[in-house]
Amino acid sequence: MEINFEKGLVPAIVQDATSGEVLMLAFMNEEAWRETIATGHATFFSRTRNKLWRKGESSGHRLRVREAKTDCDRDAIVLKVDLLGPGVCHEGYKTCFFRTLENQAWVITEQKVFNPEEVYT
Q1: Which of 4, 51, 82, 101 could form a disulfide with 74 if both were Cys (CB 3.0 to 4.6 A apart)?
Q2: Residue 62 and residue 72: Cα distance in Å, rounded?
Q3: What pTM, to 2 d.p., does this model score?
Q4: 79 Cβ partners below 8 Å, 6+ apart?
């Protein structure tokens, strides 16, 4: 059974394979999916750059895929990964979900794990 790319892009939820923590949400087209399967490392489609985005190509923080799942409609993917680096977020956090809603305001509740200025030059 293949992934349903009928509408072009499908959401890809990325989880830490060990802890289950959600690390990020990205999108995949059929080419990104095929490259992910072929290499074993997560590749996405960047909507802002309009091209394939090989996670870690500039930071070195790659995602090794341990398991892939799809939903009942086959139009969303969950990737369980090993994080090869301290974090996935371009702002320096382990996860892109580092803000928590508290008293109707978004509060940063995680600590940075790397300095993005040292990684993205």
Answers
A1: 4
A2: 28
A3: 0.92
A4: 12, 13, 14, 15, 36, 42, 63, 65, 67, 68
The CATH architecture of the domain made up of 10-86 is Roll (3.10)
Alpha carbon dihedral 68, 18, 99, 118, in 10-degree steps, equals: -90
Domain-wise residue ranges, the chain: 10-86
Inform me whether the pLDDT recorded for 108 exceeds 70. Answer: yes
Over residues 55-101, the pLDDT tens digits come to 988 888 999 999 999 999 999 999 999 999 999 999 999 999 999 99
Classify 119 in phi/psi space as left (phi over 0), alpha (psi -120 to 50) or beta. alpha
Report CA-CA distances (Å) from 85 to 1, 42, 49, 75, 114: 32, 14, 23, 29, 9
pLDDT bin (cut points 50, 70, 90) of residue 1 is: low
Amino acid at 6: E
In terms of Cα–Cα distance, which of 82, 79, 88, 84 is closest to 112? 88
Q: What is residue 81's three-state secondary structure?
A: strand
